[in-house]
Design brief:
Distance between the termini: 63 Å
Radius of gyration: 23 Å
Strand content: 35-45%
Number of strands: 3
Order of helices and strands: EEEH
Largest sheet: 3 strands, antiparallel
Length: 80
């Protein structure tokens, strides 16, 4: 990827509004035409937090779907 002028890197950096050093993942891209490097980064703990929230949301959706399916099966079995 470096030959294409882009790179990912992982490093520790102080998180904004805290004094805690946290792991950060960043993407860098070099634009030769302007001799610029543009980067964007995200803290790994923020990603993990979002994954946990989405995982819990998905778990609840699956539980609701299973409950609905059981309920439908029960009603259809009574009908016959």
């Amino acid at each position: 990827m470096r030959q294409k002028g882009e790179s990912f890197t992982k490093y520790t950096y102080n998180k904004v509004y805290t004094n805690e050093a946290k792991m950060k993942l960043s993407y860098f891209r070099y634009f030769k035409r302007w001799n610029w490097v543009i980067a964007v980064g995200v803290y790994v703990d923020d990603i993990e937090k979002e994954i946990a929230i989405n995982k819990e949301h998905l778990k609840k959706r699956v539980q609701n779907q299973v409950f609905q399916n059981i309920l439908l099966f029960y009603f259809f079995s009574l009908w016959q």
